[in-house]
Amino acid sequence: MAPQLDGFFAQVDSLSDHFIDRLRKAVAIPSVSADPARRPDVVRMGHFLKDELEALGASVELRQLGKQPDIPSLDLPPAILARYGSDKNKRTILVYGHYDVQPAEKSDGWATEPFDLTVGEDGRMFGRGSTDDKGPVLGWLNAIEAHQKAGIDFPVNLLMCFEGMEEYGSEGLDDLIEAEGKRFFADADAVCISDNYWLGTEKPCLTYGLRGCNYYSVEISGPGADLHSGVFGGTAQEPMTDLVRVLATLVDTDGKIQIPGIAEQVAPVTEDEATLYDGISFEMETLHESLGSKTTIFEDKKSTLMARWRYPSLSIHGVEGAFSAPGAKTVIPAKVIGKFSIRTVPNMEIEKTNELVYKYVKEQFAKLGSKNTLKVYAQHTGKWWVASPKHWNFAAAAKATERVWGVQPDFTREGGSIPVTLTFEQATGKNVLLLPMGSSTDGAHSINEKLDKKNYIEGIKLLGSYLHYVAEEPMSE
Ligand code: BES
Ligand code: MN
Ligand code: MN
Predict the structure, then answer these.
(1) DSSP state of 130
(2) Name one GO molecular function term (predicted).
(3) Under CATH, to which class is 212-266+311-382 assigned?
(4) Can you point out the beta strands (E) in 152-241?
């Protein structure tokens, strides 16, 4: 029987300004996990969520996760564990999200203040974290509130786990999830994560796979201090020269990873899988729009989706210690740290991949015959995850999507990573579903990140109705 949802939907609509205000308050807290100077703001964001949840009647614990491994003087922000409802006759759903955000400065090229939610006439709501992941996290709180105000019984017991270090590799959270798998999370019947995006701008999707992410540093040092290139140029071996030569050997222009042994670990394409891409609604045009250019490696949808979902990729992110300001400084940097990451896929193994990377980087450096010193190490690693979408958790989400958006969702995988997804699956032994709120043009991690008002408001309805459908869905599959 289809759940009665009209009262809930009407309540969400009438509370929409209030919900946008809540998002505005959250965006105003610059909870940038990568910036040690912003750590108090990340903690403040955690407390904001705790207060909001308690005001809604949830019981909330802040869990300290210890110190940050690479900066031992710095406390990690707390994980929030919350429970709303404990009715033995209801199912229990565990949801996860993150309250930290990527860095953002107006000077990066934002058209508006990044931490000041700016709602345009067209309904686009600009602000750092609007789509990744504050909008979706607040979606769960808003769904609770709309039920209360509409006087509708909440359909499930809701367990919530919100963290403040996701954008930095979910430092410290794996241990907590493993420890709580059979304690705080013990009652969970299924898991839902809202922290990804539609593939395009029109069609909703349900997501059953993510790539993993291994993040590496290559450090090259030699001189004792930065040097004058007029005095020392031509007489000293330069770390930056060595580094760009090493980085240049990692990947080619068409994205082909040059490290031997990586491609060999990738699961072959089965016949079933090969037929699945044609049915996915995905336009190269929309991709070009979100990319902001037409510089794609592939011209066709299938190769593009496969490259994003099921093949590994290697990206070079930056160089710490390099001269990067405008102008023309004639410096020889004494020590530079190149940063790159590999997105991993089935059946790549973290340790094996690390060993292949270390070996290759060291070999490439050795070929240079440089007297400088090289170190290569992983900053963080996170596993890939692929689940079965043939599960009642997905069936319920599909019905909710159809109810709210009037279309059947595509079943998709994604190229991004949420390091704890597999940890939740393993620690609870339950099915994990990714249920996105935002769309492909939201620009997570980019300048002018936004969430469309329509996606936020309908997304709240989606999360709420998912809980109704998942409460009723037969558990058979
Ligand atoms: N929300 C993203 C993950 C994501 C991105 C899912 C795109 C699906 C599509 C998440 O906040 C994120 O950015 N994760 C990081 C993890 C990394 C630091 C290990 C990422 O993917 O870079
Ligand atoms: Mn996210
Ligand atoms: Mn992110």
Answers:
(1) I
(2) metal ion binding
(3) alpha beta
(4) 157-163, 190-193, 205-210, 212-221, 227-228
Least confident of 103-117, 284-298, 391-405: 284-298
Polymer length in residues for the chain: 477
Distance CA 28, CA 116 (A): 6
Give me the pLDDT at residue 356, please.
98
Question: Is the bond preceding 133 in cis, omega lying within 30 degrees of 0?
Answer: yes
Which ligand sits closest to the CA of 102? 3
The reply to whether 310 sits in an annotated binding site is: no
18 among annotated binding-site residues: no
Q: Distance from first CA to last CA of the chain, Å, rounded?
A: 18
Q: How far apart are CA 454 and CA 241, in angstroms?
A: 50
| Residue 228 assigned to a binding site | yes
Full-model pTM: 0.96
Q: Which atom of ligand 1 is nearest to the CA of 168?
A: 18
Contact criterion met (CB below 8 Å) for 71 and 184? no
Q: Is the CB of 174 under 6 A from ligand 1?
A: no
Same fold, 6-210+385-472 and 212-266+311-382: no
Cα 87 from Cα 158, distance rounded (Å)? 10
pLDDT of 477 higher than 70: no
Q: How far is the CA of 67 from the centre of ligand 1 (A)?
A: 23
Phi and psi angles of residue 434, each rounded to the nearest 5 degrees, phi first = -105, 120
How many Å apart are CA 218 and CA 340, to the nearest integer?
A: 8
pLDDT at site 196:
98
Class of the CATH domain delimited by 6-210+385-472: alpha beta
- Give the start-to-end residue ranges of the domains of the chain: 6-210+385-472, 212-266+311-382
Q: What is the pLDDT of residues 59-73, one digit of tens each?
A: 999 999 999 999 999
Q: Give the number of the ligand closest to the Cα of residue 418.
A: 1
